[in-house]
Design goal:
With about 290 residues, this protein is an alpha/beta fold. It has two domains: about 70 residues, Ubiquitin-associated (UBA) domain (Helicase, Ruva Protein, domain 3), CATH 1.10.8; about 200 residues, Vaccinia Virus protein VP39 (Rossmann fold, 3-Layer(aba) Sandwich), CATH 3.40.50. The protein is about 40% helix and about 20% strand. It contains twelve helices and nine strands. The chain has a seven-stranded mixed sheet with strand order 5-4-3-6-7-9-8, sandwiched between helices. Helix 8 links the parallel strand 4 and strand 5. Helix 1 packs parallel to helix 4 and helix 6 packs across helix 7. The N and C termini lie far apart (about 75 Å).
Length: about 290
């Protein structure tokens, strides 16, 4: 208490330390990182400012907002869902209840696709991309931001997800080259594409319920559940993709860590040619590339 009897407001560093302590006590996996990201996001501070302004006090309103956010994290809500956004490939992206939170491993799909897209652009000029199950629009928007020669369609079964994707396209100045289409895989898709990309639901149904509460309580089930064997989405894509591809087109998909052989088999049975497999940061198979039959 201060001499006037009022509670002294905490400093930025004190807030971060208290959040870290409570997260650690609750068994949260990375309490220091979660505390830093949560509080820097709420207070609008960079990582550097968290240090240089660590001794500054916060307002009562800011302290209350941090306390509310800490309680949400203690209830297993992921930090970026609390903040309402996450950066992906340098783009700030808003999240919604019907969108999967884009993960760093998915950036590997973007990294892998870019050389193919640039080769296609060098050969034919304009290129057209289809991102199936687009969610926040992360993959398509990242590719468009890196390839000014490209336009893209983000398709999703969820109208809410498409609203979020369109908002993210506008937020990042990409709305002129991005279109959203509500579709169950290829049902409402028209046109021909140089590249089809997807991070589809690929977790087997019997495994979904055993995932961490951060996933099961806050990620949309439709973006996770890949059917009994986790391969339903890949089968749907492989079955019809060739009809929507340019002759020199390619497909890039994200996969589960143990699905390389099974997903490759799905696409090869439909006549696609395997091009390459790329591992994620944990050295698990994460991305597969196929060319048109």
């Amino acid at each position: 208490m201060t001499e006037s009897g009022k509670r002294a407001e905490p400093t930025v560093s004190q807030l971060a330390a208290e959040a870290r302590r409570r997260f650690s006590a609750a068994g949260i996996a990375d309490p220091a990182a979660d505390a830093r990201v949560l509080i820097s996001g709420l207070l609008g501070l960079s990582n550097t400012e968290m240090l240089t302004k660590g001794g500054e006090t916060v307002t009562p309103e800011e302290a209350d907002a941090v306390e509310a956010a800490i309680l949400r994290r203690l209830a297993h809500e992921p930090v970026h869902r609390i903040l309402g956004e996450r950066e992906f490939y340098g783009l700030p992206l808003s999240l919604s209840s019907d969108t999967l939170e884009p993960r760093p491993d998915t950036e590997i799909l973007v990294d892998t696709m870019l050389p193919y897209l640039r080769d296609l652009a060098n050969t034919g000029g304009h290129i057209h991309i289809l991102d199936m199950g687009t969610g926040t629009g992360a993959i398509c928007l990242a590719l468009l931001s890196e390839c000014p020669e490209a336009s893209g369609i983000g398709s999703d079964i969820s109208a809410d997800a498409l609203k979020t994707a369109l908002s993210n396209a506008e937020r990042n100045g990409l709305q002129e080259r991005f279109q959203a289409v509500q579709s169950n895989w290829f049902d409402n898709i028209q046109g021909s594409f140089h590249a089809i990309v997807s991070n589809p639901p690929y977790i087997a149904s019997n495994i979904v319920l055993g995932l961490a509460p951060e996933v099961t309580k806050f990620d949309p089930a439709a973006a996770l559940d890949g059917g009994m064997d986790g391969l339903d989405a890949y089968k749907a894509i492989a079955k019809d993709a060739a009809r929507f591809m340019q002759p020199n087109g390619i497909i890039g998909v994200e996969i589960g860590y143990d699905q390389r052989i099974a997903v490759t088999d799905v696409f090869e049975k439909e006549g696609f040619k395997f091009q390459e497999s790329v591992k994620d940061y944990g050295q698990n198979d994460r991305v597969l590339i196929f060319s048109r039959p």
